[in-house]
Design brief:
Strand order of the largest sheet: 3-2-1-4-5-7-6
Structural class: alpha/beta
Number of strands: 7
Shape: globular
Radius of gyration: 17 Å
Helix content: 25-40%
Strand content: 15-25%
Distance between the termini: 63 Å
Oligomer: single chain
Length: about 240
């Protein structure tokens, strides 16, 4: 039996199912559709988060091979979702601290549960907040990660500048995604087709580079696995002028 184009990306499939008219969920008197991938909520959102923890794991591992993580690093994971990436980062920065941030209340709850041992050791904190207004001082983090989230950000260029603000001079940004514009996969092509309806902002590899540079980052490197539609962008905040 032929496979659906979304079989390779079950999270995106779930998002489409929930968003399009046949799958709308009436959450208010106006029946506003819920996108469970951009902002998980309720029992279905919690199920989605646990599914993401599994399905994004190999992608995340691949992305993390493109950066060096020192034991003492202070790290922020923006859009931490179910918290699996936070846990991976805490295991690598053994003398540092990892912060997870998400604007979904359910994401924060699931992530806290996932990382309870690290939280009890004082190695992880998870908080609710928006990428558009990060609750951290300037230059707080050696590394900022964003896994399968930047294409949902509401004001992408402004939000990137906010991420740049909290990155330390000499620090690194890592964007990771499993769909992008121009990738040779059925899921990416379908996502491009319906992007305006689900509110996803897909970028080409070149546009990922430009996005980072416009925000103020330098030495931007973009890696791709086109057959899987995987992409990651690594960018560095320049050291402050002496």
């Amino acid at each position: 039996m032929p496979r659906s184009p979304l079989d390779s990306n079950p999270d995106l499939a779930l998002s489409f199912t929930l968003y399009f008219p046949a799958g709308r969920i009436p959450v208010t008197e106006k029946s506003v559709p819920v996108n469970q991938c951009s902002k998980p909520s309720g029992w279905l959102g919690r199920f989605t988060l646990r599914r993401m923890n599994l399905s994004h794991s190999r992608l995340t591992d691949w992305g993390l091979t493109h950066v060096s993580i020192e034991k003492h690093f202070t790290i922020l994971d923006v859009g931490c979702g179910g918290g699996r990436t936070v846990s991976k980062l805490a295991a690598l920065a053994t003398r540092g601290k990892v912060y997870g941030l998400d604007y979904s209340e359910d994401s924060v709850a699931v992530s806290k549960k996932m990382n309870a041992p690290w939280i009890n050791l004082g190695r992880v904190e998870v908080c609710r907040g928006s990428v558009s207004r990060l609750p951290f001082p300037d230059g707080s983090f050696d590394l900022v990660t964003a896994v399968e989230t930047h294409f949902w950000w509401p004001e992408l260029h402004n939000d990137m500048r906010e991420v740049f603000r909290v990155t330390k001079p000499g620090g690194t940004l890592l964007l990771i995604a499993e769909i992008y514009k121009g990738a040779n996969s059925a899921a990416s092509r379908l996502a491009e087709r319906y992007a305006s309806r689900v509110g996803i902002q897909l970028l080409t590899a070149k546009e990922h580079r430009e996005l980072c540079e416009i925000a103020g980052y330098s030495e931007v490197e973009v890696a791709e696995q086109p057959s899987r539609a995987w992409i990651c962008a690594v960018a560095h905040r320049p050291l402050a002028a002496s």
